[in-house]
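User: Please predict the structure of the protein below. I'd like the answer in structure-token form so I can feed it into my own downstream comparison script.

Assistant: Understood. Taking the following sequence of 167 residues as input:
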Amino acid sequence: MNKMTAHLLKARAASKARKPTYRRVQAHQFAKLNHETKWRKPKGMGNKVRRGRRGKPSMPEVGFKSPFSVSGLDHNGLRPVVVNNVADLAKVDSKTDVVVIGATVGGRKRIDVLNAAVTAKLKVSGHNDIAKSVKKLTKVSTKTASAPVKKAVAKKSEKKSEEVKSE
């Protein structure tokens, strides 16, 4: 990372720290609007927030956008790349990118992706100690996956043997 990128990342962090959290109009009156709802611009003709009346919440304004060259980068200046399987690791550059494992990837495939990332010397977001993460995932997968699968396979084989005998 060069000096300019580092400077812009610091400027972005400072700008985002100053940025207020904008609450939706009437969020204090309705629970469903209160916490994790997106900002919606008030459109009403007499809306006090839209008109900028004193004592009302402020509306978002221009000026909090990230600098173009660091837009989309994480706090370390790396570009996050979503990976869903081991083959997707080929599109990741170890110097400029960081691996983000997709949310829909299951435990077994997640272990495979983590092991492949270690061999390719890639950084994985959310996994500082990859060996520890793999160990934790294997412990969980052996507990949950082994017992029910054996029962299901045994039931299927019994049904097939009964069908063969009846014919």
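That's the full token string. The helical segments are 3-18, 31-34, 48-51, 107-119, 130-166.
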